[in-house]
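Input.
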Amino acid sequence: MKKVLKYLKPIRGAAVLSMVLVLLAQGMTLALPMLMSQIINVGIQNADVGYIKRVGVVMVGVSALGLVISALSSFFTAKASAGYGRILREKIFLKVESLAQSDIDRIGTPSLITRCTSDVQVMQDFLLQSIQIIIASPVMLVGGTFMAFFLNAKLAMIIFAIIPVIALIAYVVVKLVMPLFKERQKMTDEVNRFLREKLSGMRVIRAFNRTSFEDERFSEKNLRLSALIMKFARIMSVLLPVCIVLIIAALDLLIFAATKSIDAMTDAVKIQNSVGDLQAFVIYMIMIVFSVSMTAAMFVIVPRANISAKRICEILDLEAKIKDPENPLSTREAQKGTVEFRNVCFGYEDTENNILSDVSFTAESGKTTAVIGSTGSGKSTLVNLLLRFYDVTDGAVLVDGTDVRSLSQSELHSKIGLVPQKPCLFSGSIRDNLLFGNENADEERIRLALDVAQCGDFVYSLPQGIDSPVSQSATNFSGGQKQRLSIARALVRDAEIFVFDDSFSALDYITDATLRRALREKLSATVIIVAQRVGTIIDADKIIVLDEGKVVGEGTHKELVSSCPVYREIVRSQLSEEALV
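Output.
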């Protein structure tokens, strides 16, 4: 909890001011019953209209001032709470950005979303309630107790019979509710994970006519979460009614004791036969019991916030596996655009066998190097290692003659223009997406990138041209259009190395060939193409053939057809026999 509360520092001014205002508002509230008793005791009993008016004006003034102070207190409390939530969300987001892909995979994207929304909201509510309850309740409890004992010490002893009961109820609630809340957050993670997966795969679900089956699965998870929430709510709902019953019981005891004997009230109890003092005493008793009840509620609020704080700290305290070196090196200018894999081995944490084993090859500057192999051979893993989304288990990946682990990540990524296997466009406009990697690109650079990516015609034919909107997940574009726009975005970057991770798969053969020809003619950078189709890489300067994580062939198309059985089999499965000659 302390680690999360340290982020209060930027908004502590608003928090402290709201606390001061809460104290002032409670002081005003404590003064009102006494002023009311004076009106009844002195003004009404003595028929002193002037006194009633004077005290009444004071009472109205105190009430108005208390109202203004309460409004200001609520404003600054909300400001502090909202600011705290904003800071926590920002810290989590920035932390997630710095994490390695393996760290994100281990926690899970749905869980990260839950922690950044639901758990942060819990902490935000905790701050709001802390200022309003933790600060206000002690003032109301101490002030109300003092005023009650000042009016009548014997009757005030009734409160001591109620406090242990409320404390016991709070203890039982904490023991029952906290495990449920922890389970509720985990179940929320699971529901979010299920929703994210099913919504993204909705077309597949419909195509296989599995809508009813998935509905039943979601209904099961949803019912489990709803049952937990209902159980949580039922237990929580017991606290307030019980406390209200206790308040009514205390008032019954008070009125019974106060009205047992008017003579006793006058002589022994020292209330001086005053209806006003009795009324003030009843109000102070209500304040005391209410403050104790709110304090008991904090026994639920605090542990619940503590669970969310731990979940948030799991992210904020997570050490990223991919870090920049303390003294990053610079690349060698003489080897600009050169990529080398030197005896690279790599395996994921949860797998026993390596995905890549002793992989060595060089992608020379200004040339096109292609990587081909069967599914699961490790092609995309090479891209992840080059971009240092993961670190090699053994060996080294070098860019411009320098190990990528010795470079800062910003410098490494600035040298590479990536076109991912699955095109990812962001909501906004086409221009926003094209400028994502190079916000200073001019219109000439943008047009060149669009022309090379073979998407200039359809972009400029749109009503708004390059400023046409891109919907969420780019659903207003076809798969091939999204892929070409993704290629154009990478080309706008003007990088030293362009990596195409199976990013021609949605293109027809004519567009594919035209695009590759434009790449050769317009780009002088190093091009690395990962592909499944032989036709995409047939003209590459060098082709690397992967099989079960190992390099089994290296050379041009003609060289590999004659020397590499694996490549020859791939060619035979896709092209005519003439391609083997």
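Residues 265-273 have pLDDT under 50 and may be disordered.
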